[in-house]
Specification:
There is one protein chain. By secondary structure, the protein is of the alpha/beta class. The protein has one domain: Glycosidases (TIM Barrel), CATH 3.20.20. The protein is 23% helix and 22% strand. It has an eight-stranded mixed barrel, surrounded by four helices. A two-stranded antiparallel sheet has the order 1-2. α4 runs parallel beside α5. The longest helix has 18 residues.
Length: 324
């Protein structure tokens, strides 16, 4: 999400999502067994309309709905991914379902979203994530524009050299955001290709946070992404299994250091790259859509890459953090 070419891709995707219709490929998945030890879910029909493809969830018999959290017994489920692709939504062994009702999601002022729970109680906070691509930020103005938290890029590993670097705006961003009264978290843009490299990245993050000395009240995030430009990358050919192990190594070390770990993933990466059932850490979901149909659990949702916030020149990512 934070290499410059990706921002261009993001803007193109946002434009395409308004133009493309409901052409899609239907894929099927076999019925799955009930999964125990999580929250209750209900499955409802979703009718198709002219503006966006429907999420297709076949009926579930009464015997499959219990007071326990289950993985839905379905034959075919589809999810609209980033406004363009319609992809299969497969069962994931061991993954926990969320209890979010997207009918309770409101857009407050064409930019901010809020999720409400029972009795109309707001259960989310609005925030942004930033890096050196946003350059100088007036954090007081951003806070006055109802931004409640910021997740700031601490650093990155070069996709060609493998060298670890600090984001050149990190210190002024975390100092400015904290001084403006925002809750702050950090993320590291990983290009680790081994568990050892992922652990090295975690140690680097811990050392920089200790040096800066500003309390981190939001998660510390592992952000591993494929490079999307035309240059060859050292991560070319990376498997999902290794990516999952790298995420576990990074998040595990972050947790040992006393921080709250989290990992970032698009819908496609979460479903088909990571093994979510092997990752006992909160997910930061990236899906640029009015409402997400992602059924598995996530704590933060990046719903736009084209936000406009006072105090920031250019576009910025918009997020909600959901209180569980």
């Amino acid at each position: 999400m934070k290499n410059d070419p990706l921002k261009k891709v993001c803007i193109i995707l946002s434009a395409l999502s308004l133009a493309l219709g409901a052409a899609f490929v239907i894929m099927t998945a076999e019925n799955i067994e009930l999964r125990k030890n999580a929250r209750q879910i209900s499955v409802t029909e979703n009718a198709a309309n002219e503006s966006e493809p429907a999420v297709i969830i076949p009926e579930v018999s009464e015997t499959t709905v219990t007071t326990e959290h289950i993985c839905p017994a379905v034959e075919t489920v589809y999810i609209y991914d980033n406004g363009i692709d319609l992809i299969e939504f497969p069962p994931v062994e061991g993954a926990v379902l969320n209890d979010y009702d997207m009918e309770s999601l409101s857009t407050l002022d064409k930019k901010r979203k809020a999720l409400y729970g029972e009795n109309g109680v707001k259960r989310s906070r609005f925030g942004i994530d930033v890096s050196s691509y946003q350059c100088d930020i007036d954090w007081e103005r951003a806070a006055a524009d109802d931004v409640e938290f910021a997740v700031i890029r601490l650093g990155y590993r070069g996709y060609e050299t493998g060298q670890i670097c600090e984001d050149r705006y990190f210190r002024r961003n975390i100092e400015g955001a904290a001084a403006a009264g925002l809750d702050v978290g950090v993320y590291f843009y990983s290009q680790a290709i081994t568990v050892e490299e992922a652990a090295e990245e975690a140690e680097y993050v811990i050392s920089v946070l200790a040096e800066v000395g500003i309390p981190v009240t939001m998660p510390v995030v592992f952000d591993w992404e494929f490079v999307t430009d035309e240059d060859p990358a050292r991560t070319d050919g990376m498997t999902g299994d290794i990516q999952t192990e790298c995420c576990k190594a990074f998040c595990g070390r972050i947790a040992e250091a006393g921080y709250s770990p989290m990992y970032y993933a698009t819908v496609n990466t979460a479903l088909f790259r990571y093994d979510m059932g092997e990752l006992p850490y909160p997910l930061w979901l990236a899906e640029y859509a009015e409402k997400t149909r992602f059924i598995y659990d996530y704590d933060m949702w990046q719903y736009s890459c084209s936000g406009v916030i006072d105090g920031i020149e250019g576009l910025v990512d918009l997020n909600i953090y959901i209180e569980n």
